[in-house]
Amino acid sequence: MKEVLLVKKAVFSFLASLALTVPVAAADWRLSGKVVDAEEGNGLKNVQVRLLGAGLVVTTEKNGDWKMGTTSILRGARSNYDVSRNELRIRDGRLVLRVDGMDLMGRKVAGWNRPLGTGDLAARSAAAAIDTLVYSKDGYVQKKVPVFETVASGIRDTIRRVRYDGWVDSSHANLKADTLNGFTKAFRSMTFKWTKQNWDRMMKAMADSCGAFGKSGGFMGGTSKNCQDGQYDLIEKTALIWVPVDIETDGQIWRDVAIRLKGNASLQSAWAGGKYALPFRINTDKFEDSIPTAKNQRFYGFQKISFYNAQQDSTSIRGPVAGEIFRQFGVPAPLSVPVKITLKFGDTTKEVGVYEMVEVPDEPYLSRNFQNDSGNLYKPLSKLDKFVDSEWVDDDIPGDRQDAKDLIAIINSSQRTTDSAAWHRALEKAIDVQGFLRWLAASTAIMNWDAYGALAHNYYLFNDKGTFRFITYDFGWSFDYQMAQNGIVSRTSIWYDGTAGGFMNLGPFPLVKNLLADKGYCESYRKYMTDAIAGPASVASFQAKVDKYAGWIANANPNTAKIQALRGFMTTRVPEVQASLNAKTCPIPLTNSTTPTWP
Question: Considering the entire predicted model, what is its pTM?
């Protein structure tokens, strides 16, 4: 093979190693682009960019820019080089380089360097690439990228840092969350792998607060100790410590992810029963200060994810079905899918079955749905009837939470009856009223009882440039008639008008009651309810969703009887909702004039 010695004694081979599958014709070949750090998105200096087959090499500038072609190949060479005659071309079905001028030894170099024998190139004829770009840099993973076009400029590519074996873009690049890979369109298995020491630490913290694992008694048949933290949280925070875990799935490993137990009744009942199918939450880079290799770690771009056990849902698919109904109805519900989980700690392995994997409403949820992630994000334990500081505790939000105080004041303002127009203006500036009513309609239609209106939890409030957005969360107890039988929610009324007693006698939920007592808002709720049961929550639409997710978990020992019973839920529920729509006219008055009281 003919070789030419060029600047800095670099040896270049001019025969491309891949057969062409594009028409053979003489054409200029020019390449340029930018190489950036996959984690930071910044341009990288001194990355070697090689055109593998043609044997050409350039090095990126400080901003990651590189060029390969007529003027860049002989950069820094003697002035007697005729740079304008140095070109890359396709000739005789190969990539070749034309060099006119003199090499460093003063020898004349002119004309095309033609390819020699074909060898076994015919066996590679299926290759689509004309050639391959190779990026490499000390401390980074080499990356190969096929080149398909005869002229390409502005190529933007990334190169990954080397931290440990298995370090890949999906776990560590600073990429926009890929919902197709993070929350797949197919069923996946995941393994959580602790050291025995870290598993024992996590379990001991729970036992110290809530009693020994596998002991009955306490609240709701829970643990031998009542570790309730406040009126609404059934597990005190000291029980929920973070420890490192490795997560294996999709043939990859996410190392030193922070994991902790989570939940209320779902955690209490599993813990009391000695069931290893405990609910978990992960934070992919929480330990980055003490474990540098975890810096900016993500699960396909997602940082915070929850895993709900089947304690609250024997079908394992209620959450994904409900979430899909919400999103199709224009309610930006977090993503969720069923996954199969295996726990490993020390030498012990526990197959714990199907969980619901749920996106935590933070980033990337906020940017994806609201194009903004800069406001306060609260997860209150509040009915929104009065401000109690302990119900809004969040270590990530400093200050006095004045925006939350203002919201509660407006919701409960006496202007509601004394100056309705002024109250409307203030309320609609403070919170997305129509977004809340749309959620309330869909949530009530599918009997999502474990939510605001019956319990003061399972929602977030995001201050989006001065206007709060209501964010639904944890809807795995939807489609549930059991709570109606217990008198907590109503089957006969969608109007929150006193036909059910409410859970734990929590009293009024003013954002519901005050809106339904207003004729305009009440009519909006009526319309949203009508649209919900005719659209995403209709019988046909609901059953199609159930069938889809049932198909996902078909090989994971599903509770087919429970799934079949779930499939019939909206067949009964839609007529109930329609009858309630027909039974009342708007507005729905408060029980006692201007003072909200729970019926």
Answer: 0.75
